[in-house]
Each structure stands twice: as C-alpha cells, then as structure tokens.
Design brief:
1 helix, 186 residues, binds calcium ion, Jelly Rolls, 11 strands, mainly beta, six-stranded antiparallel β-sheet
C-alpha cells in the first residue's frame, strides 16, 4: 500500500488545520457569529433611550436636552439622566450573576458645567446575600465624560444582583449615561 504521506507532511497538514481553526475562531468572535461567546448585557435600558424603563428612580431627572452648549449632551443616543441638589438615587436589579462571570461594570458620567465637583457620587453594588457594598467618592467627576469602572470593585466571592447610583452635590449637576454590566459568554 502506498503511504499517504510522510510523517513530516502529516505534521505540516495538521499544523495548517490548527491555524485555520484558530483563524476561524477569531473571525467568529470578531463578527459575532459565534453566539455562545457573546457577552450578555445585564442592564436594561442603560442608556435611558427608553426613559426610565427598568430603573427605580428617586430624584434623578430624565432629559433629552441638548442645546450644543453648556455641557448638556448625552454620552450616546438622545436621553440621559442628571442629578442636582436633592439626593438623586437610581437602581436596577437583575438575575444573580457570579462576579467572576462579569467582564465589564460601570457607567459614564460628567458634570454639566464646571468642576471638578469634589464629593457627591456614591455607588452601591448589591449582592444576592442581601448585602450592599458602597463606593463613596469612587470618582470626582469633571466636565469631561469619564467611565466609572467598577469591575475591580466587585466582590470576588459574591453574586451581583444590582447597582445603585446616587448623587448629592448642591453646586454641580451630574449627567449619567450608558450604564453597563456585561456577563461574559459561555
Ligand atoms: Ca443615552
């Protein structure tokens, strides 16, 4: 019987197959065709384009005001929330998710004008064991859009069920938009 190929040829073919497989996987992830690897957004309506749907709000103002000056513009879309003076508190809960599965957690914020504001921002991470962890002054907002990154603040031993964002500052108006908590794909 004729030999199919030398050991060296077989090795080359298998190496080529391995590379093709890697290339396919990479493209599938890039194009999002490999659905099982897609991350899931745990926050509903994080950009406030559906108003306050999904949120429990007390004191934040929903607005689409954008006159192109004075710092009043959304981070994306048209809508955002802003807080000022009175204690503003907004919260959303979702199915308990182990923090080890979360790959992104935070939100965008900026002062509508002036700044830096100093204290006033307080974020609470809510866990399935009914505990809350508070992060006061996690960031001193300025008049530039800034991502408040909470990923490293997640308690590694717990399951997250929600987030609450509060603002209280008598001198500065804070805008918040695009809240996002992503659960990594399987
Ligand atoms: Ca928005």
């Amino acid at each position: 019987m004729a030999s199919i190929g030398s050991v060296d040829q077989k090795r080359k073919v298998s190496e080529r197959l391995r590379r093709l497989e890697q290339e396919y996987q990479r493209e599938a992830v890039e194009t999002g065709t490999e659905e099982e690897n897609q991350a899931t957004e745990l926050i509903e309506n994080g950009g406030f384009e559906d108003g306050l749907t999904g949120w429990t709000n007390s004191g934040w103002n929903l607005s689409d005001y954008d006159d192109g000056s004075g710092g009043w513009e959304p981070h994306s879309g048209i809508w955002y929330i802003w807080g000022y003076s009175a204690l503003a508190s907004i919260e959303q809960t979702f199915a308990a998710t182990a923090t080890s599965l979360i790959e992104n957690c935070g939100f965008w914020c900026k002062l509508a004008s002036g700044g830096p504001a100093g204290s006033g921002l307080n974020v609470y991470l809510l866990y399935s064991d009914s505990s809350e962890e508070s992060f006061e002054d996690v960031l001193f907002p300025t008049d530039t859009w800034t991502w408040v990154d909470l990923l490293s603040s997640l308690n590694p031993a717990k399951s997250l069920i929600g987030i609450r964002i509060t603002w209280f500052n008598s001198y500065y108006m804070l805008i918040v938009d695009d809240v996002s908590i992503l659960r990594m794909g399987d």
